[in-house]
Amino acid sequence: MLDFDQVISAIEGAETLEALEALRIQYLGKAGEITGLMKRLGGMSPEERREMGPLFNGYQRDANAAITARKDTLETAALDARLAAETIDLSLPAPATPCGAVHPVSQVMDELAEVFADLGFAVATGPEIEDDWHNFTALNMPESHPARAMHDTFYFPDRNDDGREMLLRTHTSPVQIRSMIQQGAPIRIIAPGRVYRSDSDATHTPMFHQIEGLVIDKGIHLGHLKWTLEAFLKAFFERDDIVLRLRPSYFPFTEPSIEVDVGYSSQGGRRVVGGSGDAPGHAWMEVLGSGMVNRHVIAAGGIDPDEWQGFAFGIGVDRLAMLKYGMDDLRAFFDGDVRWLSHYGFSALDVPTLSGGVGTPA
Ligand code: 2NL
């Protein structure tokens, strides 16, 4: 026969939760000893059952209660032991907070905005989803114009409510068209942002960054363009010995159109901007396109081209970042690899300044 006092003292003396669980199974489990007594009640005569029923039921109830109480005691003791062991040493240095970095494209965009702000330019922005009028037609590129095909445009399947074809802007020029229409002359703006062309290889990504500039005022001429670009490139590259070479070119939206090269030399496998491209050990590198705004474009912007003139320019920001900070593969810009970013990125706490980066070697 079961010695119930011993069952209770075994439960109360269990040293661990595992030992307690073993006792629970031994007495109250499916094949447990108290469970066995309960099963035996079924085979008893009514008299026997009346006598033994309350006794066995009491065993079951009291054993359960003892196990619950012991479990509670053991768990509390385990928690107390853990709390005593896990003290916090407040004198230890705090673990470093994972911190992002500013992407070189964002850094260069900020630097460009700062340089041009010093020259009196405001920053203008606009939609990346455009219609073909703002992206092409207003820029002196009518529907059949071959330059439209040159842009490898991403088109949307549906036209907008005005029946215009919709597309991802291929340059930020539509921002300047919108600014001309909205604010009128005079204008002094830069339009930085993402642009899209269906192009992909080592030097082209389908999305890239551009910054365009537009000045509209009275009596604006090529001299203003050249001075502005020179001042900009000197400030951006933080060097006084920047030499420009202006070459005639063609863009539908400017007349005349001018491509601008800068002199550079190769030092330790890196291109370093500065000096004349004709000097020994130097060469020329194209950095931007520009020109006097075509009178048709000024008119499309709702401004009288007989009264107002202007110049404009367009620069690839990604290429400019590569040049200033020494990255050699454009595709890595948009891979999203944090190792690349921690190598080339800039502290998020930095105030964007011209001298914030590694700069060009002296
Ligand atoms: C390039 C050439 C250029 C412009 C962009 C422009 C904008 C308006 C009117 C006239 Cl609203 N021109 N933009 C002008 C000349 C060149 O970009 O090679 N960019 C990377």
TrEMBL record:
<dbReference type="Pfam" id="PF01409">
    <property type="entry name" value="tRNA-synt_2d"/>
</dbReference>
<comment type="subunit">
    <text>Tetramer of two alpha and two beta subunits.</text>
</comment>
<dbReference type="InterPro" id="IPR004188">
    <property type="entry name" value="Phe-tRNA_ligase_II_N"/>
</dbReference>
<comment type="similarity">
    <text>Belongs to the class-II aminoacyl-tRNA synthetase family. Phe-tRNA synthetase alpha subunit type 1 subfamily.</text>
</comment>
<keyword id="KW-0648">Protein biosynthesis</keyword>
<dbReference type="InterPro" id="IPR010978">
    <property type="entry name" value="tRNA-bd_arm"/>
</dbReference>
<dbReference type="GO" id="GO:0000287">
    <property type="term" value="F:magnesium ion binding"/>
</dbReference>
<feature type="binding site">
    <location>
        <position position="255"/>
    </location>
    <ligand>
        <name>Mg(2+)</name>
    </ligand>
</feature>
<keyword id="KW-0963">Cytoplasm</keyword>
<dbReference type="GO" id="GO:0000049">
    <property type="term" value="F:tRNA binding"/>
</dbReference>
<keyword id="KW-0436">Ligase</keyword>
<dbReference type="GO" id="GO:0004826">
    <property type="term" value="F:phenylalanine-tRNA ligase activity"/>
</dbReference>
<dbReference type="InterPro" id="IPR045864">
    <property type="entry name" value="aa-tRNA-synth_II/BPL/LPL"/>
</dbReference>
<dbReference type="GO" id="GO:0006432">
    <property type="term" value="P:phenylalanyl-tRNA aminoacylation"/>
</dbReference>
<keyword id="KW-0479">Metal-binding</keyword>
<keyword id="KW-0547">Nucleotide-binding</keyword>
<dbReference type="Pfam" id="PF02912">
    <property type="entry name" value="Phe_tRNA-synt_N"/>
</dbReference>
<dbReference type="InterPro" id="IPR004529">
    <property type="entry name" value="Phe-tRNA-synth_IIc_asu"/>
</dbReference>
<dbReference type="InterPro" id="IPR006195">
    <property type="entry name" value="aa-tRNA-synth_II"/>
</dbReference>
<dbReference type="GO" id="GO:0005737">
    <property type="term" value="C:cytoplasm"/>
</dbReference>
<dbReference type="InterPro" id="IPR022911">
    <property type="entry name" value="Phe_tRNA_ligase_alpha1_bac"/>
</dbReference>
<dbReference type="InterPro" id="IPR002319">
    <property type="entry name" value="Phenylalanyl-tRNA_Synthase"/>
</dbReference>
<feature type="domain" description="Aminoacyl-transfer RNA synthetases class-II family profile">
    <location>
        <begin position="106"/>
        <end position="361"/>
    </location>
</feature>
<protein>
    <recommendedName>
        <fullName>Phenylalanine--tRNA ligase alpha subunit</fullName>
        <ecNumber>6.1.1.20</ecNumber>
    </recommendedName>
</protein>
<keyword id="KW-0030">Aminoacyl-tRNA synthetase</keyword>
<keyword id="KW-0460">Magnesium</keyword>
<dbReference type="GO" id="GO:0005524">
    <property type="term" value="F:ATP binding"/>
</dbReference>
<keyword id="KW-0067">ATP-binding</keyword>
